[in-house]
From TrEMBL:
UniProt-recorded name of the protein: Phosphate transporter
Compartments in which it is found: Membrane
Keywords: Membrane, Phosphate transport, Transmembrane, Transmembrane helix, Transport
Native source species: Natrinema saccharevitans
Tree of life domain: Archaea
GO CC entries: membrane
Length: 393
């Protein structure tokens, strides 16, 4: 019986890893794919590689601590209960991925483990409280920082970078396999500054993939590792392989959602979103908080879209209740040296609506599902551990 449970546990861990790949690839590489810098296949490959590097180097520390600090008595992590925890994590993430919304793996996993702790009376409320506070503060911080950048600094940054994504055609960065050694190939019409910007946004996506590996690998394998039946390295290899499968398959839906549907992201905007979200994630990770970079990146995209959409209206106009207009000129400033109009200066003719840059319906769906998915994991796990007698608590 224990052997059967272990096999089932490993299969469920693989299922969790598969859904982690689907939910985390979008926030990391959605901006780069949406700006037509790289293809979805290249994004999946880079995410797989850097996730594994993060999981193998720093991930073991997170795997060790996740099952020790959130609960006061680690004996509750039996093989049977761990299989159930992983089932609720993977099932809830699958719901989000099926809806095309990248849910927070950290929130979903912590919710299931916290539910086990609550059902058994072994939850460390101090640790949970600290985590939840940062989960609330971090997305708000990402939204407002991105909003301020979008409203006041985006034209200047765009003029400095002078990059705009190109609709259709070949991606800006591709791989030339014609020779014995594959090499990077850039678009024929891309200049040096565009190439630099493209490499920057891809590099930041790789950094976010690395960061995801350091924390999210624990969400897939920590419960199984806690039983002592399987060593750390084999579990990391299994979990990372499952994540890679998710990156190449189900992640396509979340790449579309974060790269195209929420807001129209030129490459400059993609860089801004990646810098803000990855900076907050790294800051949280440095103080030991499991970072929900899915939510932070999403809210940064929303904040940037909102900031860009309100650029044509001054604060005094808004206070008088005048209608908010959306500027085209203030947002593009593609050419090097082009003067960016001041706030409120733009020509009002042929100005698009705010929804042309920022899709409220898609955003509402994303925010709703990013709260529903962890709730499914937490509530389902709590009632199972509290009222189903087979777990023996």
């Amino acid at each position: 019986m224990p052997e059967v449970l272990l096999i089932v546990g490993l299969l469920v861990a693989v299922f969790v890893g598969f859904n982690i790949g689907g939910s985390t690839t979008g926030p990391a590489f959605g901006p780069a794919v949406g700006a037509n810098v790289i293809t979805k296949v290249m994004a999946a490959g880079l995410m797989s590689i850097f996730f594994f590097v993060g999981a193998y180097t720093i991930g073991p520390q997170v795997v060790t601590t996740l099952g020790e600090e959130l609960v006061t008595d680690t004996s509750i992590f039996t093989l049977r209960s761990n299989v159930a925890v992983l089932f609720f994590i993977g099932g809830a993430l699958f719901v989000g991925n099926y809806a095309g919304v990248p849910a927070s793996t950290s929130m979903t996993a912590v919710g299931a483990i916290a539910a086990l702790g609550m059902a058994t009376g072994e939850l460390n409320w101090d640790v949970l409280g600290e985590i939840v506070v940062w989960w609330i503060v971090a997305p708000i911080l990402g939204f407002w920082v991105a909003g301020v950048v979008g409203r006041y600094f985006y034209p200047r940054i765009n003029a400095w970078i002078a990059i705009e994504s190109k609709e259709g055609g070949r991606p800006m960065v591709s791989i030339d396999r014609s020779g014995l050694v594959p090499r990077l190939q850039f678009g024929a019409d891309a200049d040096r500054r565009e190439i630099t910007g493209a490499l920057t946004v891809v590099a930041i996506g790789c950094l976010m993939g690395f960061s995801s590996g350091t924390s999210n690998i624990a969400n897939a394998i920590a419960p199984i590792y806690g039983t002592g039946d399987v060593d750390m390295v084999p579990l990391i290899l299994i979990g990372s392989a499952a994540v890679a499968v998710g990156c190449f398959t189900i992640a396509r839906r979340t790449l579309d959602t974060l790269g195209n549907d929420i807001t129209n992201l030129p490459l400059t905007a993609a860089i801004v979103v990646a810098v803000i979200s990855s900076g907050i994630v790294i800051g949280l990770s440095s103080i030991g908080v499991p970072a929900s970079f899915v939510v932070i990146a999403t809210m940064s995209i929303v904040g940037l879209g909102w900031g860009r959409a309100t650029r044509t209206t001054t604060l005094s106009d808004a206070a008088r209740g005048e209608e908010t207009r959306v500027s085209v000129g203030a947002l593009t400033a593609e050419e090097e040296g082009e003067r960016s109009p001041e706030i409120g200066e733009e020509d009002v003719e042929d100005i698009p609506k705010a929804s042309d840059l920022f899709d409220p319906s898609t955003t509402a769906r994303v925010i709703l599902m990013q709260n529903v998915v962890p709730a499914i994991s937490t509530v389902g796990a709590y009632f199972t551990f509290r009222f189903v007698p087979i777990f023996g608590f």
